[in-house]
Design goal:
homodimer, 255 residues, alpha/beta, 2 domains, 4-stranded mixed sheet, 11 helices
Chain lengths: 255, 255
């Protein structure tokens, strides 16, 4: 049973201000909650239909599931087809190990605004074993319900950090054999470039590309060529599409 | 000036039933209208702010632009930030040349539902010079405003056909040296397979994959490996992400 106050609280944390105030976020649907229960994120409250609780009783460990009706579920759900279960989850303070970052690939997102794109990129990073994603402080919040939804659970396996890019990029200058890659219209054909298994892959926003202030940090400018080269096609690819192709190129020779 | 009836009509064609009845669709925003005016699609009506008309007078040819106010624009717009201009455009009856199809790459989408994904895939196809996209009749309508928007103009340069897959796939059996490629969890590593410059690239829906009834037509089963192989990551990639990587792999050796 959901009290009016609880419904109000749950709906409030769909907004960033209240999420931050209460340091929690909202996770919805069978697939995502399944991934959540297999992660080290801490569940504050879990609400589910009787059917879901009966089926998943064994995987709940010490989490107390509160039974709700389909009508109550529909009142909370952000999905067009409400899906049996949702949870309130504690935001985890996430840090990175600088030695780890200097020896591996990470993704840097310069002012990403669209929640669906951020979620999709987190999923891509997870697929290609890229643990750390760095966003500028102005970017969309990783705990936005649409971001969480479009990660399809990858949010529980990757680390998204909001940082000062100037500091991070200056620190990266001290790393050994470390490149900062970025995509530019005037970059070199990514298919014929040698790509390292450590470095930063910087992606700019769709409308503005990589900001002028970070351009000088990029040591390898890349370009995904269209086909046939020099024909009139779309001016660019969507940011998550471009990130997918770039990550695939980095990993294809070591898989 | 927009009459109430005109506003009603324009809003009605955001729905498939009325789009089909009137054989037209809705195109919005500077970038898309610019691509529209450079295409062979026929504009029925074009509405724009005074500012836009003053700037674009020269590229209008014989199209009569109707001036509207910002308030009128906001009443029609589907965008969070209304963008100066929109047009009502005639749906074009699109056909394909079977010899052309048998000598090139095409994309086949098995029941794609999400408008954003279809739009993004059209943009990918355009980028990689894939002219024809075939959808099952149950798929989302290409003239849905969200599809049109997310193509970013690629809709005016590619051809999307709604067809009976059984007929098309049976016809493809008669083509010379023609493969039907599909992605499957049990497929072969796409990075090490030889990929032809003619064939069908079949992508299944995100939740159900390629339908059982079409599986037997697939002659080359492919898989995008995750990294490191055999680690626990996301179960799959988003359909437009996967399509981007697959198309990039097909073209990378001939670019």
């Amino acid at each position: 049973m959901l009290s009016k106050n609880k419904i109000k609280f749950i709906n409030s944390i769909k907004k960033k201000k209240y999420r931050n105030q209460h340091q929690c976020f909202f996770v919805e649907g069978e697939k995502l909650v399944d991934e959540l229960l297999n992660s080290d994120f801490k569940v504050i409250d879990l609400f589910a239909t009787k059917e879901w609780i009966d089926e998943n009783y064994g995987s709940l460990n010490n989490i107390c599931a509160i039974e709700i009706s389909d009508d109550e579920l529909a009142k909370i759900s952000s999905l067009s087809t409400p899906n049996k279960v949702f949870a309130i989850v504690e935001q985890k303070s996430i840090s990175y190990n600088i030695d780890d970052v200097s020896e591996n690939l990470s993704i840097l997102l310069d002012n990403i605004n669209d929640p669906g794109n951020l979620g999709t990129i987190i999923r891509i990073a997870d697929w290609f074993g890229i643990k750390n994603i760095f966003c500028t402080n102005e970017s969309v919040d990783v705990f936005n319900p649409k971001v969480v939804q479009s990660t399809m659970g990858a949010i529980f396996r990757t680390k998204v950090h909001y940082v000062d890019f100037a500091e991070l990029l200056n620190e990266a200058k001290t790393f050994d054999d470390f490149n900062i890659y970025g995509t530019f219209l005037e970059g070199k054909n990514i298919y014929s470039e040698q790509l390292s298994q450590k470095g930063f892959i910087m992606m700019g926003s769709e409308s503005h590309g990589i900001s002028n202030k970070w351009k000088s940090f990029v040591s390898k400018k890349l370009f995904i060529p269209n086909y046939p080269i020099d024909t009139k096609t779309s001016e660019s690819l969507n940011i998550s599409t471009a990130t997918a192709i770039v990550c695939s190129e980095f990993r294809r020779n070591v898989i």
